[in-house]
Amino acid sequence: PYALGPESFYNGSDGAGGFASGGAFFNNNYVDFGGGFYAWSGWSVSNVTDVATPGFANQFAAYNLPAGGGSDGSAFFGVAFSFSPGDATIVLPDGLQPQSVRITNTTYAALSMRDGDAFAKKFGGLSGNDPDYFKLIITGLDTGGTPVGSVEFYLADYRFEQNELDYIVSAWTTVDLGSLADARRLSFALESTDVGPFGINTPTYFALDNLVLVPEPAAGLLSALALLLARRAHRRVAGSRR
To answer: Which pLDDT band, with edges at 50, 70 and 90, does 122 fall under?
Structure first.
């Protein structure tokens, strides 16, 4: 999925069902209806930098002002479409636990919230006083699928009494995942105040980069113990040669 040309994306059209990165597995569900019509959910990989064009046709760009692109200049980033909780998941590699991740909006979602569109409202409403928000919920699950905790991150928040404090996230922002240390899988859900008869009206997308995983304490302890034993064995061999 990373063999991308400039300003392009991988959305699972090969039917692989997902992709691996850094030992973690990112799910993808792609359905081809024929005639150029398709649907996807879960994760895609992108390097699209368009932070100015509104609408569904620009669903793969990270909203990272002013120039777009990945976190800290990275070549690629993930884009998730998660209309229902659990549409987007990440299976973590054995022996590693989540520490942090970088998150921002997609251009599609950000401009929809800023200006409104044919399906979704302008956040704040006509007066600017509507207490709207768009929230990402990251839930950690153990091997049996039982939640071990969750982390919330507001992609937009218009609930402040002073309207000038209202914001839509427009840059890569670090989210601490340390409280999900016991998770073996991460599940992502989105929540919005703009909801209609068919669910959330706000485009249910976000962008992700730089998922940081660290060794589990037990794994780190075993590694340290193995290194200590190896050093002792080396000393014994060296001592026997004197």
So the answer is: very high
On average, the pLDDT of the chain sits at 92
Asked whether the predicted pLDDT for residue 147 surpasses 80, the reply is yes
What is the longest distance spanned by two Cα atoms in the chain?
Answer: 86
- Confidence band, pLDDT 50/70/90 cuts, at residue 231: low
Q: Label the pairing between strands 9-10 and 37-46.
A: antiparallel
The C-alpha angle with vertex 220 and arms to 215 and 225, in degrees rounded to 5, equals 165
**Rounded distance between C-alpha atoms, residue 200 and residue 72, angstroms:** 31
Query: Distance of CA 9 to CAs 18, 44, 100, 105, 113, Å?
Result: 14, 7, 24, 16, 23
| Both tokens assigned to 30 | 């792609």
Whole-model pTM: value is 0.88
**Contact partners, residue 43, CB within 8 Å, separation at least 6:** 12, 18, 19, 26, 27, 28, 78, 79, 80, 88, 90
Q: What is the dihedral of CA 103, 107, 111, 113, to 10 degrees?
A: -30
Q: Which residues pair with 65 in a beta bridge?
A: none
pLDDT of 23-53, one tens digit each? 999 999 999 999 989 999 999 999 999 999 9
**Burial track 96-114 (b if 16+ CB lie within 10 A, e otherwise):** bbbeebbbbbbbbbbbbbb
